[in-house]
């Protein structure tokens, strides 16, 4: 059975132009639950499938970034483990972070995919070429997104986005050949 890209042709063309995928964290890469241990340490739960998707994007020359309003050691560790070089924690106004990132990369807003789940993300989502929201994103964000994932936050959103972007350029099965190679899991 072969994977079929669920995007309409016009959105597939927009996804094919993407050179940078930016992820919010809470509600996108996690389910939005904040758990504190008895000593006050913040614990976050990330989906390993999302990690494969993010690494696949990078392996095909598509830059990835995290811009999050919150900052935590757990988030910094996850970004480091995935080799995400563009990491902006504690960013309440996300647009200036994205602007600062695009210029040195030579990327324009229409070449950016942004994945967000709440109103803090709207300023960015309305200015980029491909705006995506998780299935359980706030209704206002879903209304303004070009695509709403089947996955809920923390349950494979990044993997689904990676499949859409890569699947708009190539047979997705061919992209996953890289994920099967032993060197795929080696950290950069």
Question: Secondary-structure blueprint of this entry?
Answer:
Blueprint: H1 9-16, E1 20-23, E2 35-36, E3 42-43, H2 48-59, E4 63-67, H3 73-82, E5 86-88, H4 94-105, E6 112-115, H5 122-125, E7 130-133, H6 139-144, E8 147-148, H7 157-167, H8 172-179
Parallel strand pairs: 1-4, 1-6, 4-5, 6-7, 7-8
Antiparallel strand pairs: 2-3
Number of helices: 8
Number of domains: 1
**Helical content band:** 25-40%
The proportion of residues in beta strands is: 5-15%
Distance between the termini: 33 Å
* Shape by Cα distribution: globular
Q: Indicate the low-confidence ranges by residue numbers.
A: none
What top-tier CATH class fits best?
A: Alpha Beta
Order of helices and strands: HEEEHEHEHEHEHEHH
Major β-sheet annotation: 6 strands, parallel
Return the average pLDDT rounded to an integer. 91
Radius of gyration: 16 Å
Which homologous superfamily in CATH is the superfamily?
HAD superfamily/HAD-like
Major sheet: arrangement of strands? 5-4-1-6-7-8
**Total count of strands:** 8
CATH topology: Rossmann fold
Task: Kindly describe this structure.
This protein is α/β, with parallel strands linked by helices and 188 residues long. The protein has one domain: Rossmann fold (3-Layer(aba) Sandwich), CATH 3.40.50. It is 38% helix and 14% strand. The chain contains eight helices and eight strands, in the order αβββαβαβαβαβαβαα. β7, α6 and β8 form a beta-alpha-beta unit. The mean pLDDT is 91.
